[in-house]
Amino acid sequence: MARLSSCSRASAALQSHQERTRDLHKAKMSLLKAVIDTSRGSRASQDQRALLEESMVEVESFDAGTALDLDKLDGTWLLQYTSASDVLSILQAGEFPFFKAGQIYQKFECKGRFDGGQVVNVVRWSIPGLLQDGEGATLFVTAGFSVVSARTIQLEFKEARLGEVLISEELQALLAPAVLPRTFLNLQILQAINSLDVRVPLRGRRPSNERRSLGLLYYLTYLDNDMLLGRAIGSGGVFVFGKTQSF
Predict the structure, then answer these.
(1) Could you list the residue range(s) of the whole structural domain that residue 115 is in?
(2) What is the value of pTM for the model shown?
(3) d(CA 227, CA 122)
(4) Total domain count for the chain?
(5) For 129-170, how does the pLDDT look when each residue is reduced to its tens digit (9 = 90+)?
(6) pLDDT value for 61
(7) Contact 93, 86 (CB under 8 A)
(8) 94 contacts: CB under 8 Å, gap ≥ 6
(9) CATH no. for residue 236?
(10) Which residues form a coiled coil (predicted)?
């Protein structure tokens, strides 16, 4: 009798787990569906924003109360949606003909850690006619982060760096026409542009008793192997990321 009761409990637990997995999958699919046609948030209407907020809350409920797993967080995450004004300004600028915003990533380096690590914000962009489409230039913004509560991390920005600049074929043809011998000067110009590396330190001197800005607090509300949801405390912006391959 006891054995039957034990089997019944195990069967009920398995059924409950399967139902929860199905419900979670359905909630995640609803969120991803709501992201479509918002241009990563830059063209989201009020109704779309409201629907996205409801969908986010539903997904977040499946991960509520659990501590952050930094091994799961480690890796590269591709931005799929945001309402953060600083990121939206980049995406909206990409609608102008002289600037095109490419992919935006967050790359966390924290495997095997429990107290924090490093995150690199990666923004790819281009200038039509001057730089290669989509990935003509890459901006890297590096920050250290520490875990300050079960699901909240605190960022401290260190450096902004402009990575490799890839000029367009049109500009290369202008600097070094294919029909003429490439002069030493033209080759030097091409090499200098392609190897451009500009770094700006972001650390500022701050009194030891001065509190960090609330805008540097990042509440990670949901995390699994393929989805990351976050909310910036202070600014109120939300983020939806999907796991992607390292680059």
Answers:
(1) 21-166+198-204+212-244
(2) 0.78
(3) 18
(4) 1
(5) 666 666 677 888 999 999 999 999 999 989 888 777 655 455
(6) 95
(7) no
(8) 42, 100, 101, 125
(9) 2.40.128.280
(10) none
